[in-house]
Amino acid sequence: MSQPIRLALLLGSCRRNGNTPGIASWVQKLVDARLNPAGTPKAFDIIPVDPTKAPHPYGPIIDGSRLPAQINDAQEYSTEAIQEWSQFIASCAGFIVVTPQYNGGYPGELKNAIDHLYREWRGKPIITIAFGGHGGGKCAVQLQGVYAQLKMRIPVEPVCLTLPRTYIEGEERVSTDGKYPDFLAQYVDAVGEAADGLKASLVSNESN
Amino acid sequence: MSQPIRLALLLGSCRRNGNTPGIASWVQKLVDARLNPAGTPKAFDIIPVDPTKAPHPYGPIIDGSRLPAQINDAQEYSTEAIQEWSQFIASCAGFIVVTPQYNGGYPGELKNAIDHLYREWRGKPIITIAFGGHGGGKCAVQLQGVYAQLKMRIPVEPVCLTLPRTYIEGEERVSTDGKYPDFLAQYVDAVGEAADGLKASLVSNESN
């Protein structure tokens, strides 16, 4: 029996008291249910990546004696943390990004995580679930420019979630406890279709 | 005699062995000469900000109990480092960003530095000197989207510097030693005009 295909779920931010961990847990459950139907062998393994924990390299690129694009072997990265990040991302067949929009763009820690590597991303499919008070679409557009530059594949349009103001400016938060707020229900189909697109892109790549 | 107007020169990256410190030093000299003509009292004070040193807050936003947009007083920020960053940025009348393009976007540490604050940026003018193997224009466009979201003023188009391949992929680097490579000469006028635009924007704001 073959190993499950590994997908990383990259959390754009782990700001304390933010909505990312809750929305990411909701996305993970939906995508898992869609790609691993009950009664079938597990085909996909979805691994959440918290920007504050290894293998995420955290922080900016400090050593730049060589550009990531010039590195062909993970052993050539300057620190063990980046070597580990490289090996992890290289082991993943595709990516799901769940990210807040910050000031019309992506969070810095997400961009740093991407920029530490280069060849590890190339040719792989990536889907984006962005969110914000107005849907996070500006963040998603900026990310798609970055993915394109890295020659990643973008099988579907980003899913953009509009959070009620009480979740942005007020006290309410999407929790990881499994009880998800009603406003997310309207996006269930879109996340499922994005998961289908990711799967189709992986399958089409394997058959190439 | 009035105090010089304070401008911050934000370095987008301090990757070791990168070109940012050298290009930033070249920009600082040009802007200083343009805004502080010989024989006149010093009108503008240009302060370089290295992302690896205070008052730059480094790293991502960790505490998010309140959004920067909800904070009206620097004392309300969660750490002394962010309070210091807030006070510094609040003390500046305008900004010059000198940044490399990374993978079609801005470096993560630059975005983190911006996202730590909110009201401190609002209404202030900002000019951008971006660079890369193809001029860094994609980075500049993404930054302008962020500035617009923050309701900053953008008095001039970004200046985009195309670095020779030997400065990107090879061993050559723009040094801070005051001997600048010939390829930069073609951009001297554009940087001077950007400085004029920044000054005009500051003056027009004062007269409002």
From TrEMBL, chains A, B:
PANTHER family, sorted: CHROMATE REDUCTASE, NAD(P)H-DEPENDENT FMN REDUCTASE LOT6
Which species is this UniProt entry from?
Phanerochaete carnosa (strain HHB-10118-sp) (White-rot fungus)
Which positions fall inside the NADPH-dependent FMN reductase-like domain?
6-155
InterPro entries in the cross-refs: Flavoprotein-like_sf, FMN_Rdtase-like_dom, NAD(P)H-dep_reductase
Could you name the domain of life of the organism this protein comes from? Eukaryota
Q: Name one GO molecular function term.
A: FMN binding
Indicate the transmembrane segments per the record. Answer: none
Q: Which protein, by its recorded name, is this?
A: NADPH-dependent FMN reductase-like domain-containing protein
For this record, an example GO cellular component is: cytosol
